[in-house]
Structure formats: C-alpha cells, structure tokens
Amino acid sequence: MLLRVGGTEINTNRRxxxxxxxxxxxxxxxxxxxxxxxxAGAEITEVERTAISSSIQxxxxxxxxxxxxxxxxxKQWSDNNCDHAYTxxxxxxxxxxxxxxxxxxxxxxxxxxxxxxxAFSDSAFRFLRRSAGLETSIVVLITAEVIAQxxxxxxxxxxxxxxxxxxxxxxxxxxxxHVRFQSExxxxxxxxxxxxxxxxxxxxxxxxxxxxxxxVWSAHHRAYRAGRFSFGRYASETWAALERALLRTDxxxxxxxxxxxxxxxx
Length: 266
Hints:
By secondary structure, the protein is mainly alpha-helical. The chain has helices spanning 19-30, 46-63, 68-81, 84-110, 120-130, 134-158, 162-193, 195-226, 231-248, 256-265, and strands at residues 2-5, 8-11.
C-alpha cells in the first residue's frame, strides 16, 4: 500500500527498527567503513581552498559536538520508557558524528585549513537543541542532517581531492541512516501522542527549514557553487530531502502492528 503526501509516495509496509536493531547497525557500520586514501596528501588547489575553507570549517565544527544534551535527554527518555538500548544507540550515533568531525579535521590539517571554535549556524543549532526536550532536539537534528545530505554532495564535487571525495561518500552513506534513525524515533513518538501533535510538529519542521535555507546558503554559497549548485538547485534538493524525511516521521508509513508493538514496549 502506498501513502501519498505532498506528491510523494511511500510504501506503508515499511518496518521500523527497535533500538536493539539500531545498536547492531551502528556497530556493523563502524566495522565496514570506506577506506580513506590519506597517503594522497594535500591535493586541493588554491582556488578550491578559497571556495571551501570557511564552509568546511563550519561543518567540521558542527559534526564535533559531544552531544551531552542529546545524550541526557535520550537517557531520561530511555529510563522513563524502559528502552535502555536507545541510550546506547544514541551514544553510537554521536560517535559517528564525531568520526565525521575527525576525518574532516584531518583533511583540513593536511591541506592547511585552520580549525575554528565558533560558527554562527553551529551556535544557532546548538542553542535550539539545548533549549529543547528530546522530541524537539530530534526535529532540529533532522533539519541539520537533511542540510548535510545535500551539502556533502556539493562538497564532494567541489574539488578533485580523492581524500575529500571518499570522506564525503562515507558521510552521505551515514547521514542517510541517521535521518532514518531519527525519523523512525519521531514516528514512534507520534504513534503514542496522536495525529494533531504530529501535524503540528511537521509544520514546525517545515518552518524551521524555511528559515534555515537562506542562512546556510549565505554562509556556504561559495562551496555550493563550487559543487555546481545554484541556490535553486540547493533549495529544491534540500526541501525534497526534508519531505522524504517527513514521510518517515509519519506513523502511517509503517506496518501498524509492528510500529505500535515497539511503541507499546516503550
């Protein structure tokens, strides 16, 4: 059976994973990473460095969060819902994000791009996450991860560096599953909280993305343009990625019996 939302169809026979399955996924993924050809050394030209430096600095900083607030909120939710594997899954998710930061940082060091300690977009996302509970934190996280799904395509294509291209390929693979992980959690919450709250939350997510799109473009347009993205392409592909994520947050997109069984256990 297909669910149509906003012109997009999704198979409603999808099965949401429980927390134990996500722990197993993150552990498998950590053991099957794409090799990075670090021996290639510094490959980017001065033109490429100018195009990506300030942008990669901001994204590297954003990936480096220790995730203390998210982990605390997840632990509280896990304890309240007897889903202790969720805490472990969140810990492994944070570890993957930190791996992204490490690899981007290594690339920056090799190519003489200094690291930064503050960036406006990163500060804004961190403020929103810290001032929110778990559900809203996940909404903010999905926004950042959807932005990343398109950004790392542009960054991958912005230079001829084999190191950066391989880093971006791995991050894109990871981010696809990160969006799924977070979206399924919101679907489980929506299955418990009711349709009205889901619709309100979906509206908030769209408003947040509408506000975020011009801010991110303003800060990172040189890197997007180097990757052959116009503002129109950037906005349309990012919005399409958001809509795909929103479909995954809809409880109707899953096998009802399996979804409610997981929700009931929590």
